[in-house]
Structures are given as structure tokens and as C-alpha cells.
């Protein structure tokens, strides 16, 4: 590929990359989608035709340059094409989280002033119609799946395929206008607007330019040697920046194929069928997969379990060294080869990871034990540290330099510095343009020289150049004795156990740490069935004495591990409670990307936190919940508070 001086070959927009791909390797697969159990495939030439027809249809509908077009639904080729078609006509795509409730959608649609929304199905149509009267600029709603929508008022409701057909019919008339709009696109044109998850307030609209997206895709693809032969599975929310950079940015830059699963329920089966070579997942996905593996091993026969335990011990000892190309003795290599034949290979095949060449996890810190488990199997799992405002990439692990305790070195083109308070700052070609309609936040996040404040506390290792993240800067604090308080460090260790789904640790400014625990219903439920323990609900299982004993054992094991780090030994959990409900995004306790909203949790459950610190043995509480149909209700519960054994803290070594 000929490259201009800037390295992009003059390809300064995503539509320009599309035309390049269709021209140079039009017959290569671009998108696959599984529907009704059958994989359908579109090559780059077919994708170009589909996208152009939709772009012409949008022109026919009256879409103007600079308009915002909302995209809502599960991962489907047609919705990815909608984003590129919007860019072609000079509009700005704004993907929304498909599981957001109507009022959350109303905020984003109203804030960006979307004139058009392109949605997947009846569920999304209903949510937009519910809030349409609150939207002063909204005009047209386009849907992909017609099921259930025949009797709706179609005055401003349009079927996706009809918009394409109308655009195709007016091709001769509208093509000159489409080409003129495409010709205006440049590196500084707005490529996409993505809303932050809003852990501390209302979501902010992050504007990313073509420069941000294309340069980030170019640098990151070169870093991991990504090429046209890669296969990725697009299953994460389309509103998340990671999915956009993988499924649009890198895909269009390299020309690799994006595969969309049939639905969330079939995702694991579809993952196995595709066998991606390039795979990304947040820690929660890897945690859930590990939980599934451990549950299956508990159900396995004694011979299988002994074989699994034996060869996993070999894998933990030498697997990561073999993966990184480090010297390993012949005997260990032979044992690992046998283990791969009998255990690791079949296990990777079951998980769909047999072909993974590059795997990443990001979004939040992953527990080191979980990370090492996958690498011990020979899966090249690495950590990536990024943000929406960075167009994902800030740091990543280079091959051969992968460690559980760091997030890697600066990604190509990225500069790092550490502020006086320990906060991490970066500058790169991926730095966002602005927060839409929010100049104050833009100015407080990005300075005049282009340095962006991450909000995370960390430090750069002098000898390796690797970045270590301690915690969110706003969450890192001091215990009453002056020792460091870093809750995420402890929470990740707790979540290594398959029985623990979520953990929230408290202790800033206090004498000791305490914790909320959510059990994993599938893992603990499976354990209960094997032990003939009956239960009728999550709440009943969570407060069962044997479950409490099991969780206490996990907490005390974590305390032993935390005590080994002198800097963080003060973060051991002294008392804990197993919550009566799962923390839920619909209840405002988590973001749509499954990050805990600490401040909201602290406010909502202040009575339980008070009881954790006043010596109470139990606490009665009433909690408001939101049901799946949107109705509000409440749960009453009396929760047992347990003490956990802690190891002595070496105060002399605590932080000053």
C-alpha cells in the first residue's frame, strides 16, 4: 500500500478507507452475521454498495451536513454500515447503549439534538417513541427488523431496506451531492461522538475526529501486526469506544473481517464457531468464563479433576514463560506439551480461543490470578489501558513484556507524564477534539498543550518504562493511620473467586476496611445444588450460613495475599456483608459498562456501611429496585455482618 508522508496514503476518512478496501480487495470478507443459525457474509464490495445505498437514502430523507444520527441496537453489520453512511453524508453517528432505559436515551438524544435514529428492532423503536415528545429536533426513526411494527404509525417511521431502496432509485440524481459531501471530509472532520459511561455525573459527548480514529487504528494495527487475515467477534456495546475502534477503525484500516453473533445468548457458541484471531474482552467476560470452567471442573469426575489440577499446576509454572519465548527445560516443555494435548487445547477450544493470536483486556483492572490463568494456557492475553478521550490507546503490553502488575508501555505516538499528585497524563494523535457543548469540562480535562488528565493514579517504572495504575485518583486515599487506601486492588483479588461477582471496598479516612460482596448466582447456585442446599431466591442463597462461611474464607485468603504487600497491607478487609441484591445498572449502581458508581452506592447503602463500622452483628434495610419492565419496587432484608481474620500490618512500612 502506498503511503503518503503522514503514513495514511491520503486516506483521511473512514468512507475513503471503505472505497480503498472495495477497490483493492473487494472480494475479501468484511462482515459476517449469524441469523437463524446461519452465518451470512458480505465482502468489501458488497458492504460498499450497502453503505452507499443507505447514504443516498439519508440524503433523500433530507439529512444535512453536521446532523447527528443516533445508532441503537445490538452488534449488526447494518448498524455498523449506518455509522459509515452517516459519515459519508457529512453527519455524525452517535451510538447509544442498547440496554439503556428510555430516560437515559432521552438525555443523549436531546443533548446532541439528533434528527434521525437508526435502530435495530421494536424494543428500541418503543423506547425512542416513548421519549420523542421531549426531543425538539427529532424527525425520523429508521428500523432494521420489521417484526411487530406493521401497525405502527409510519409517518416518521421508516424501514431500513426501504430507505436504501429509495436511495438506490434516486442514485443518478443524488450521487453528485454524495460525492461532493465525501470530498469535503478531511482529517479534522468529526468521525463519531461517543458518550462516556457517566460514573460521576451525566454522560459527556466525546467528539472524535477522523484523525483520532485513523491514526489510532494505524498505530495500534502496526503495534500488534494486525492484517487482513484477522477475525474479530463484535459483541461488546456499539456505544463503547473499544468496539468502535476494533469494528470500524482497525477493521477499515487493515481490511479484516468483523463477525456479529446472533444474540447475547448464543455468543459463546458463535465465539467457538468463528474462533477469532484477535479478541478483546473486559475483565468481567474473562472472570465469567473462568467461573464457567471452574463450575464444570467441580462437576467433573475425580480422574478428570485430578488431571486438570495436575496439568494446570504445570501450566501456571511454565506456561507464561513458554508464551514469552523464555528458556524452559525439556522436562517441563514435555509436561506442558502433554498438558496441551489433554487439557489446555480442549479447554481453549471449548472457550473459542484456539486461534487467538492477540487478546486484550481493558476497561478496568483484571485480577492477576485471572490474567495468569489465561496466559498459562498459551493464550496471548495482554492488558490495554485506554479511555474514550484517547480513542482507546494509552498504553499496551508489547509481546514478550507482558506482566499482570502493569498496563504496559506507551502505545505508539503516545507521551506520558505523572503529575505531582500521582495522576497520569497523556498526549497523543488520539486525543479527543472536545466534549460536545461542554467547554468547561474540555478545558479542565485537556490543557492548551494537548495533555489529558486520566483521573487515574499511577507511576512509570524507571527500569522498564511500564506504567502501573494504582487506582482511580479520586478513589485512592489514606487510611486513618496514613497508609495507602486503594480499593480496586483488593476488589480485583476478591473477584478472582468464581463465587464472587462484585465487591466494593470502603475505608478511606477510617481505621479499617470493610466490604460489600455480591455472590455469583450461577457459581454459588451450582455449588448449592451439588451440596443439596435448597433456595428460592438470590436473597435466600446469599444469606445461607454455608455461603457466608465460604465467602468469609475467600475474604480471609485475600487478606493473607494483601498482607504480603507492605504498601497496601492496611487495605485488608476487617468486616464484610453479602448484599441481598446484585448491583445493577438499571438501579443506577453501575454504569452500562459494568463499573461501580461508588458515590451512589455509598449514598444508597449508607445504613449498611454505618453498621459495618459501628460493631453491629446485623442490619435491617429497605432497598428500592427497578424491575425489567420499568416498575419500581423495594426489597426488605436483614443482613448478617461478619468479621474476617486479618494479618498484622507492618505500620513502619506504611506510606508516610
What labels would you give this structure?
28 strands; Rossmann fold; GMP Synthetase, Chain A, domain 3; alpha/beta; single chain; 656 residues; five-stranded parallel beta sheet; five-stranded mixed beta sheet
Describe this structure in words.
By secondary structure, the chain is an alpha/beta fold. It folds into three domains: 14-261, ANL, N-terminal domain (Rossmann fold), CATH 3.40.50; 283-472, 3-Layer(aba) Sandwich (Rossmann fold); 478-653, 2-Layer Sandwich (GMP Synthetase, Chain A, domain 3), CATH 3.30.300.30. It has 21 helices and 28 strands. It has a five-stranded parallel sheet with strand order 4-3-5-6-7, sandwiched between helices. Helix 1 (14-25) packs across helix 9 (241-254) and helix 12 crosses helix 14. It is globular and about 80 Å long. The protein starts with 13 loop residues before the first helix and ends in a 13-residue tail after the last strand. Mean pLDDT is 91; it is low at 1-5 and 651-656.
